[in-house]
Each structure stands twice: as structure tokens, then as C-alpha cells.
């Protein structure tokens, strides 16, 4: 009996576990939830950055950054999101930027046509 016990104690025991995650329903659900969460974070960050750029462009267009203008922008973009007003602001800013680019191009063209300029 002691001989058998000694022989059993000398045996090496390997414990191994294998998980098949390919077909595990709970694993797929967890991965899907994590992916949706990460997508939501990225989307919110992108939308926030996009709003900041538009607010900055609007302040540049209007030429002033008083408390009333900033409060209106914050209210529109952050607290009470108004998609129609945001669309209107975006259209105003884009129209102003197009108009500005057109004026700059006209000024450069007029400057090039002046005699004695650029010599």
C-alpha cells in the first residue's frame, strides 16, 4: 500500500482548462455590448468636437464673443440641443466663409492687375 502511495505521489498532474469562445453566446453578447459602448464614446467625442469647431467658426464670423452670444451657443449645442438652429448656424457660417474666400480671391486678382505691384 505504501508503495502505491509513493508511486501516486510521484506522478505529475497537469490541470488544463479550455474555453471555446467562438460559439459561446454569453461571450458574443459581452463583446457586442463592449463594442456598442466604445462606438458610443467615439461618436459622442466626435460630435462634441464638431460642435466646438462650429461654435468657434460662428464666433469668428460674428466678430464678437459677448456673454449673450456664448450663452446662446451653449444653450443650443449643449443643454437644449436644437438641430434646426444648429443647421441654420452651420449654413450662415458656410455662406460667410464662401463669401470671404470670394472676396479674398477678388482682392488678390485686383492686386495682381495693378501696375508696379510685385516688382
If you had to describe this structure to a student in words, what would you say it looks like?
The chain has one domain. Helix content is 76%, strand content 0%. The chain has 4 helices and no strands. The longest helix has 38 residues. The chain is elongated. The mean pLDDT is 83.
What portion of the residues fall into strands of 2 or more residues? under 5%
Low-pLDDT sequence parts: none
Tell me the domain tally: 1
State the end-to-end distance.
111 Å
Secondary structure category: mainly alpha
What order do the helices and strands follow? Answer: HHHH
The gross shape turns out to be elongated
Report the count of strand segments. Answer: 0
Biggest sheet statistics: none
How helical, in percent, are the residues? over 70%
What radius of gyration results from the CA coordinates? Answer: 33 Å
Compute the number of helices: 4
Output mean pLDDT: 83
Short description:
The chain has 119 residues and is mostly helical. The chain contains four helices and no strands.
Question: Features of this protein?
Answer:
119 residues; 76% helix; mainly alpha; single chain
List strands and helices in order, with pairings.
Layout: H1 2-10, H2 25-62, H3 67-79, H4 83-113
Helix pairs in contact: 2-4
